[in-house]
Every structure is written in C-alpha cells, then in structure tokens.
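Quick review question:
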C-alpha cells in the first residue's frame, strides 16, 4: 500500500512539473520571444482576460458556470443511461448464447456507425433541444460499455461458473454474486472509455444548435474569431473530463478495494 501511494505521489509531482513547464514554454514563446503569432494562438494574458470576461460578464448566452453545469448535466444523463443499458446488455450477451445469437447481429450492424453520424437523425427526432444531444452521447457511450462487459463476463473462469451451478446459484443472485464481480475490472475499463467518448461527442453535438454548454462557447468563439475564448472552453472541457474521470476512479476503488492504487 505504501509503495502504491509513493508511486501515485510521484506521478502527481511529475504531472504537475510537466504542466508548469508547458505553461512556462507557452509564456516564453508567445509573450517574451514572440515566436507564436497571437492572432493564431493567444498569449496567456489574453486567455486570462477571456476567462475573467466569461466569468463576470458572460459569453454565448451565459456565464462560465452555467455552461459548465449544462455540459456536465448532459454528459451525466447520457452516460448514466448508456451504462445502465450497456452493462445489462453486455451481461446478458456474455452469459447467454441464445441472447448473443439474437442481439449480436443488430449490435454488429450499429457498432461501426460513428456517434456523430447520429446527429442529423437525433435532430429530426428530438429537435435542437437537449434530448438530441443526450441521445448522441448515449450512442457514443453505449458501445464501449457493452463490449467490455461482454468480454469481462466471457473471461470469467469456467470452474467458477461450474461451481455456482453446483451450488444452485441462478437468476439475479448469479448476476449479483458471480457475473458482475467477475467482470468488474473489464466493466470499469468500458466505463472509462464510455466517459471519454461522452465528452468527445458532447462537444461535437453542442456545436450545432446549442444555447448553453462548452461546445456552444467553442462554436460562438470560432464565429467571432476569438482564439482566447476557444482556449478557455477547451481548457474547461479538459478539466471537466479529468474531474469526472477521477470521480469514476474513486468509484472503482470503492467497488474493487483490492485494486486500489492500480487505476491510472
């Protein structure tokens, strides 16, 4: 445990140093030596002014906190529904050959379709409101959760399944006590991929017809040719993604305490 904690602290220090060095190089290249054209990539002071402006005055129909909370809400809703449906379907397909034979052909047909390809259809079905964006996020997060859960269930050792059958463990008890614990590492791998896909898809979905959200800031700033505001939105997309990934890692540590400290 102590070794894992030391490794985690060392990674945190290295990450912090990397960020500081990157910011320093950015400042020197843009503000001191002028190697970077400010019209194409903003200086640190311009980004700070853009941050203060959207925080105090607002930009793109709202202030920064409104945009961040709106994007978080959309990601949370789409991700939660995708995980609930995807994990359930993955467990069902992984455990039942009949269910796999019935569902897998349709899943294999839909799987190669990029999530962004669903945007026009989502708009036709649900308009430009939040429902269309949640649908696209759902599609993006659904596939990784299904695939990894299915793989995790299929990789459970055969003697474990045979022993559960001998003990008469079936139905929901089998799912709760055998399938989910056995597939848990792969399930959380799928959840991480689903969360990443959710944020990537959210930004693309919000570029079209969104009044609030970090993607709408990117769209408005691009139209206004406002590079500093674009960078502000990009930074907060990264911060939100990192924060939700950290939160998911904490949930994983609580669900699997024996693997605590091993999650990246």
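Suggested answer, residue by residue:
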């Amino acid at each position: 445990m102590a070794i894992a904690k030391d490794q985690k602290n060392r990674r945190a220090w290295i990450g912090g140093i990397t960020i500081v060095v990157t910011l320093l190089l950015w400042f020197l290249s843009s503000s001191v030596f002028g190697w970077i054209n400010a019209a194409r990539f903003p200086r640190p002071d311009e980004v700070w002014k853009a941050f203060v402006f959207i925080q105090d005055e607002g930009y793109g129909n709202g202030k920064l906190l409104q945009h961040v909370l709106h994007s978080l809400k959309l990601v949370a809703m789409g991700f939660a529904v995708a995980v609930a449906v995807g994990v359930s379907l993955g467990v069902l397909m992984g455990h039942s050959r009949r269910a796999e034979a019935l569902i897998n052909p349709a899943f294999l047909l839909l799987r190669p379709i990029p999530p962004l390809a669903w945007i026009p259809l989502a708009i036709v079905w649900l308009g430009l409101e939040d429902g269309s964006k949640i649908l696209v996020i759902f599609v993006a997060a659904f596939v990784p959760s299904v695939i990894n859960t299915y793989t995790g269930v299929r990789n459970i050792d055969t003697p474990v399944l045979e022993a559960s059958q001998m003990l008469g463990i079936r139905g929901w008890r089998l799912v709760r006590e055998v399938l989910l614990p056995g597939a848990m590492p792969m399930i959380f791998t799928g959840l991480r991929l689903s969360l990443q896909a959710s944020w990537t898809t959210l930004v693309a979905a919000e570029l079209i017809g969104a009044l609030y959200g970090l993607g709408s800031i990117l769209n408005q700033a691009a139209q206004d040719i406002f590079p500093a505001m674009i960078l502000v939105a990009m930074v907060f997309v990264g911060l939100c993604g990192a924060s939700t990934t950290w939160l998911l890692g904490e949930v994983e540590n609580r669900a699997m305490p024996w693997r605590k400290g091993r999650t990246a």
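Why it works: The CA atoms of residues 30 and 36 lie 5 Å apart. The longest helix spans residues 171-206.
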